[in-house]
Design goal:
Blueprint (H helix, E strand, L loop, with lengths): L11 H16 L39 H6 L19 E8 L6 H13 L4 E3 L17 H16 L1 H4 L2 H17 L10 H11 L13 H10 L34 E7 L1 H10 L15 E7 L12 H6 L10 E7 L2 E2 L5 H10 L10 E2 L5 H4 L2 H4 L4 E5 L13 H4 L1 H8 L8 H8 L3
Parallel strand pairs: 1-2, 1-3, 3-4, 4-5, 5-8
Antiparallel strand pairs: 6-7
Helix pairs in contact: 4-9, 6-7
Length: 435
């Protein structure tokens, strides 16, 4: 396992996911099996700082010869317009936003963000709880999630001018925090080692650059009632193009003007939702045009292949657009080593859910939740995108969360035995270097 540690999490994710899996199991249909026409050999390990010279560019990626110099350039605006036409060209900044997967939230991905930040990629997580996903259950519109992604990207992009000099800015923040602590008006000044370490951690955490937004249980209830699409065809249709105009609840502080473009890292369902955010097209009443603020997208174990059911209507929608034509670099990362016929019920049902009609999931391989064919299917939609297949890498840190043994006992035991997931330190070095 990597050096990152993951504290116990809430049971909300597992309760919701268990219900979802039950629905998945009862709705699996039969028909023709899914087949892929591409082969993706396993990538070689490489440094987080530089690309591996053994990396085969014809099979995995196309390097942009201008990218590395562009990302190191001093933040300055260009007089030209990008392909979106509404924002000036912005410099590429080596900073990232993590979008959690379905029914997970910020807390599950803070350790991953910390590891990336320690490797020189200041990283934040979309500041949301697991329960924010509830209005999207049943394959409904992802507008609530898109609003949160847009909010986070815009605020990180607004401070991107400082992120290029993150170590200096962090040290200045640390010095100020320590000075404020020493000068506090407490009757007795006790600066314990734990307090100093806590101040250091907070002062160097880029997550503090992202403000809070207002969203409560009443907002969630209203969104749950009105969010269109899904199994029940709320608003009249399950098709994205036919969603009625609707604005999700929540009060999101406006961000200052953007100073640079950042990267997006989408885990599981968060990956294909990122693609909707980058699109120029209207999604449920709004075109987010995230490509104007994002230079690169990495998806980790995300389902990109078309499959039956309302839950994949959004995937079908994003599969009609090639984001690389907007200048966005795209990498799909998949894992192998978790066979559908020997990795437990959750794996078998998840594979069946992600593949077209005609399979029970037992004949597929993948990361334990997303089969290889679906994780790398984006290559068929975007020929200029990159793909990376990692041997013996799992979907999630199951043994580090409370309730994993109940929901996915086999996957939890695999992880407990030392099998890694996408967020382990050694695995991050394989896909993180692509940035």
């Amino acid at each position: 396992m990597g050096s990152g540690t993951y504290p116990p999490r809430s049971t909300k994710f597992y309760t919701c996911l268990a219900v979802t899996v039950a629905v998945i199991s009862s709705s699996t249909q039969t028909g023709s099996a899914f087949r892929t026409t591409n082969s993706y050999p396993h990538s070689q390990r490489r440094s987080i700082q530089t690309p591996n010279p053994k990396f085969n560019p014809t099979e995995h990626r196309r390097y942009n010869p201008h990218y590395s110099s562009a990302r190191k350039a001093a933040p300055s605006h260009s007089s030209g317009l990008n392909q979106g036409g509404s924002l000036p060209n912005l410099p590429n900044i080596r900073a990232a936003v993590i979008v959690p997967g379905f029914l997970t939230g910020k807390s599950e991905f803070e350790p991953l963000a910390a590891l990336l930040t320690a490797k020189g990629i200041p990283t934040v997580v979309v500041p949301m709880g697991n329960w924010h996903w509830l209005p999207c259950l049943g394959g409904r519109s992802m507008r609530p999630m898109l609003e949160r992604i847009d909010f986070t990207v815009r605020h990180l992009a607004a401070v991107a001018g400082n992120l290029g000099d993150f170590e200096r800015v962090s040290q200045e923040g640390l010095d100020k925090s320590l000075e404020d602590a020493w000068n506090s008006s407490e009757a007795v000044q006790v600066m314990t080692r734990e307090k100093v370490e806590s101040i250091k951690e907070d002062a160097t955490n880029p997550q503090l650059l992202i403000p809070d937004f207002s969203y409560n249980i009443f907002d969630c209830w209203q969104d749950f009632r009105n969010n269109p699409g899904g199994v029940l065809k709320v608003g009249g249709s399950a098709e994205v193009e036919e969603y009625p105009l609707w604005v999700p609840k929540g009060s999101f502080p406006e961000a200052p003007a953007p100073m640079g473009k950042v990267a997006l890292i989408g885990h599981s369902a968060g990956g294909w939702i990122c693609r909707a955010y980058l699109s120029r097209r209207n999604y449920g009443g709004k075109a987010y045009k995230g490509h104007e603020l994002v230079h690169s997208l990495i998806t980790l174990g995300s389902p990109h292949g078309n499959a039956p059911g309302p839950a994949f209507k959004g995937v079908e929608w994003v599969n009609r657009e090639d984001l690389t034509s907007y200048g966005v670099r795209v990498l799909a990362v998949g894992g192998t080593g978790y066979k559908g016929d020997s990795s437990g019920t959750l794996t078998k049902n998840s594979y069946a859910f992600c593949c077209p009609i005609g399979t029970d999931g037992s004949q597929y391989d993948g990361d334990g939740v997303t089969p290889i064919e679906s994780a790398l299917a984006m290559k068929e939609i975007m020929p200029d995108s990159d793909a990376m297949l990692l041997d013996d890498v799992g979907h999630f840190c199951w043994s580090d969360v409370f309730g994993g043994e109940t929901l996915a006992p086999e996957l939890t035991q695999f992880h407990k035995d030392g099998r890694p997931w996408y967020g382990d330190d050694d695995i991050i070095e394989k896909w993180g270097g692509w940035l």
